[in-house]
Write a structure and sequence with these properties.
This protein has 142 residues and is an alpha/beta fold. Helix content is 43%, strand content 18%.
């Protein structure tokens, strides 16, 4: 699985990268503008992202703006909603208002609050892409 993490805080990027690397390749960027650029480049190279973890509050272009730009481009390309990249909004704010905006206005797939933990990452991966987690082996691994 190919993933992108967009967060302006170095510690958050590194932590998420380490937690996600067990599930595939992870690219790290520092703001929404870089996230949109990475998304476009991945499509140009025919290696699109499966999952994007997008911090909401970032400089240059925030997470809401970046997701809207990504969804707009997917619509231009004729990508159906069921084939859109899965976007997880990440924030330090545990705000129902932000969650609703992320889902209904921006079109994100899920919402995760900081602090980031292995358990939160595993839970999101289960919900977003149906992956079994390292702490819950599949029947073939037992």
């Amino acid at each position: 699985m190919k993933m992108l993490v967009a967060d302006d805080e170095l510690n958050n990027r590194v932590l998420m990268g380490r937690l996600l690397e067990a599930y595939g390749t992870v690219d790290l960027v520092i703001d929404g503008r870089e996230a949109v650029d990475a998304f476009l480049l991945a499509h140009t190279e025919k290696e699109p992202y499966d999952l994007i973890f997008m911090d909401i509050m970032m400089p240059n272009m925030d997470g809401h703006q970046a997701v809207q730009a990504i969804r707009s481009r997917e619509a231009e390309w004729g990508i159906l909603s069921r084939h859109e990249v899965k976007v997880i909004m990440v924030t330090a704010l545990d705000s129902p208002k932000e969650a609703m905006r992320s889902y209904y206005h921006d079109g994100c797939t899920d919402y995760m609050t900081k602090p980031i933990t292995k358990q939160k990452i595993e839970h999101i991966l289960q919900r977003a892409v149906g992956l079994p987690t390292a702490s819950h082996p599949t029947a073939t691994e037992e």
